[in-house]
Amino acid sequence: MSEEQIKELEIQFEARIARDEKIEPKDWMPEKYRQTHIRQMSQHAHSEIIGMLPEGNWITRAPTLRRKVALLAKVQDEGGHGLYLYSATETLGITRDELLEQLHTGKAKYSSIFNYPAISWADMGAIGWLVDGAAIINQIALCGASYGPYARAMVRICKEESFHQRQGYEILVTLMKGTQEQKNMAQDALNRFWWPSLMMFGPTDAESPHTAQSMKWKLKRKTNDDLRQQFIDQTVPQAELIGLTIPDSDLKWNEEKQQYDSGEINWDEFWQVVKGHGPCNKERMKARIAAHENGQWVRDAAMAYAEKKEKRKTNK
Ligand code: BYC
Q1: What is the largest CA-CA distance in the chain?
Q2: Measured in Å, how far apart are the chain's first and last C-alpha atoms?
Q3: Helix H segments across the chain?
Q4: Measuring from atom 51 of ligand 1, which residue has the nearest CA?
Q5: Please, are residues 134 and 183 in contact by the beta-carbon 8 Å criterion?
Q6: By the 8 A CB rule, do 148 and 24 touch?
Q7: Residue 267: C-alpha distances to residues 80, 112, 137, 138, 151 (Å)
Q8: 250 pLDDT exceeds 80?
Q9: 147 phi and psi, to 5 degrees?
Q10: Does 222 score more than 90 pLDDT?
Q11: Whose CA is nearest to atom 52 of ligand 1?
Q12: CA of 244 to the centre of ligand 1 (A)
């Protein structure tokens, strides 16, 4: 293709984006658009499956059968989200094996939040309420993303995240109606998960290398800072309602802006965690790689079955 032809395709592509048309897998797209989507969508998929680990550890320790059923369903949902997202990413011309290789070798990132430990039952409440709560705010915006398979995957994921957020909040509501020890446990979970949840939205807009281009391509529909602010404004009243205190002494309602002012995030901690030096990075990768290796026989069996079926078909 000549340079002129590519320029013409780019103009048509930008016009489609401007008209809010969805871009589909077989459509022409700039190589950078494809690569940016592979990066974000695969990191999103990786976050879903790594995100199964902290909560998965608590399935056997859930306090009642009802809690166990709900947590089990939630963790399975996260696995399902990973599968839709890997499938959607594969439509951009990369294989599942390549994507997993990038995760296992540390080339691809996953959300920083999953590198923090879940040490008490109240953490199951805090993760559902805050982590899934942050994820919904981010993902509702992504339902309007320009790449069709990504936007469509988000619709169902958001519905499921909404149930996850409620089950988490309800765990904390119950603990806050309990003994002083249970209340302390809930507050302690909030203290540990509040700041890492704010970090989930990524660096400030001024420090984010990808936001400007991703906004132009309508991959992102809102910036990191706007989504983070929305999360704070939505979550603070929920904490107050059940008697929890947000661990931020600078948090204050700003009447003029009609939003909360909040304290400074520890960005040094964020980058340390992103670079692999968080409290659980090594443990998470070890568990993920072991799960992959232990699942080899399942993949082999599925492939053998598919080959046998194909052979039978050709022999007929
Ligand atoms: N953690 O220019 P930026 C869930 C990286 S899971 C780690 O702002 P971008 C759930 C970023 O990748 C929810 N890395 O980038 C599951 C980039 O590095 P590279 C997961 C982060 O992509 C189980 C660099 O920093 N959600 O719901 O425009 C249980 C510069 O950042 C983080 C998604 O993945 C981070 N927090 O914006 C419960 C949503 N933040 O790639 C719940 C989809 C930034 O250049 N993703 N980095 O090496 C997004 O919306 C965007 O990718 C982000 C970052 C807002 C996260």
Answers
A1: 76
A2: 44
A3: 3-18, 31-50, 52-56, 65-90, 96-104, 121-126, 132-142, 148-176, 180-199, 211-216, 224-241, 267-272, 281-294, 296-315
A4: 40
A5: no
A6: yes
A7: 31, 12, 21, 20, 30
A8: yes
A9: -85, 115
A10: yes
A11: 40
A12: 28
Instruction: Write the residue with the smallest CA distance to atom 13 of ligand 1.
Output: 135
CA of 228 to the centre of ligand 1 (A): 13
> Nearest Cα to 38, choosing from 105, 97, 99?
99
Q: Which of 128, 141, 146, 152 is nearest to 235 (CA)?
A: 128
Distance, in Å, from the CA atom of 208 to the CA atom of 145, rounded to the nearest integer, reads 19
pTM, whole model, 2 decimals?
0.96
Distance 119 CA to ligand 1 centre (A): 24
In this structure, the residues whose C-beta lies within 6 A of any atom of ligand 1 are: 39-40, 43-44, 47-48, 51, 78, 109, 111-112, 131-132, 135, 138, 199-203, 208-211, 214, 224, 274
| Candidate of 210, 219, 265 to mutate for ligand 1, largest count of ligand atoms within 8 Å of Cβ | 210
How far is Cα of residue 251 from the mean position of the Cα atoms in its chain? 26
The amino acid at residue 80 is G
CB 236 within 8 A of CB 130: no
Which pLDDT score, from 0 to 100, does residue 233 have? 98
What tokens were used for 27?
């459509």
Residues 281, 242: Cα–Cα separation, whole Å: 32
Ligand 1 atom showing the smallest separation from residue 200 Cα: 36
* Per-residue pLDDT, 35: 98
What is the residue with the minimal CA distance to atom 43 of ligand 1? 44
Phi, psi of 23 (to 5 degrees): -95, 130
pLDDT band at 162 (very low <50, low <70, confident <90, very high): very high
- Kindly give the distance from the C-alpha atom of residue 142 to the centroid of ligand 1, in angstroms, as a whole number: 12
DSSP classification of residue 144: T
CA distances from 197 to 45, 150, 190, 236, 313 (A): 18, 23, 10, 13, 52
For 258-269, what is each residue's pLDDT tens digit? 999 999 999 999
